[in-house]
Automatic annotation (TrEMBL):
Domain of life (superkingdom): Eukaryota
Database matches in Gene3D superfamilies: Phosphorylase Kinase, domain 1 (3.30.200.20), Transferase(Phosphotransferase) domain 1 (1.10.510.10)
Keyword Heme annotated: no
Family membership noted in the UniProt record: Belongs to the protein kinase superfamily. Ser/Thr protein kinase family. GCN2 subfamily.
Reaction(s) catalysed (UniProt annotation): L-threonyl-[protein] + ATP = O-phospho-L-threonyl-[protein] + ADP + H(+); L-seryl-[protein] + ATP = O-phospho-L-seryl-[protein] + ADP + H(+)
The species this protein was found in: Monosiga brevicollis (Choanoflagellate)
Protein name, as recorded: non-specific serine/threonine protein kinase
Amino acid sequence: LRYRSDFEEIEMLGEGGFGSVVKARNRLDGSTYAIKIIPFDVSFPSYSAKVVREVTLLGSLNHPHIVRYYQAWTEHETKKTRQSQNNQSTTDASTETGDHVLYIQMEYCPRASLRHLIRDGSLRIQMIWRILREILDALAYIHQNGIIHRDLKPENILLDKDLQVKLADFGLSTAVGAAPNSMGSLPPAAAHGHKPELTSAVGTSLYVAPEVDAGSRYDDKADMYSLGVTLFEMCYAFGSMHERYVAIPALRESLAFPQDFDSEAYKGPKKIVQDLLAHDPAKRPTAQALLLSSDLPAKAEDEFIREA
């Protein structure tokens, strides 16, 4: 088996309904990667073929704020092999019953996600502007390449060792068996084409755009709505999860900000949140338009130095 022979698992990075992600060292080049491991139903071979094609497409993208996708492949893996993998099992997969597994080899980001920065309260206004600009830069790039993320949220915005944004998890697991209208932890399949319009209701409920939630046709403006919710979370510290699940729906419904939201300190981000959360997609700015607008302050000197 290719995965077992080429990679040494170091630690589990995360698990969910879609499968798991592990940190692994490649035995051939010694580099560390994140490997997404997704069991799939062999009775739907088109799913795995589709996701491999999508990984190939994503692998062709080259942007400093997008996680690199290197390759994807499928294997037939036995339960016995999986359980004893760390012991270098030599189980013959052809004689055992087990799962068919999709492996996706991706760039490993050693720092946590944006969600961790939000939770620990370490975000200051200048960092918020920088992170927002980097997210917009990545979104503008994928949208210009005909790709819609469709599951944009703090958990899918990773950070490298220098705290630079790395947009991740383009929702490949839906292509291997997730329900087309899943609103939970299962991320959707990436879509591509020229200005694509899609109809499946996918994404995570607090972030999904109204038109997606309604099953209507949508395009890359759906990502911009999700960014609006994400930006709001970057500017407001929730006292509890309950407060979060009350405040965000209120914001989505009528743009009602919490009474204690600091509108003076976050005047600029608040306006952008209001623009991005417009129920009419036509009224939301595109990523490229927002990047070029006066709503974003000029880059700080350290950003120019870092880019140079």
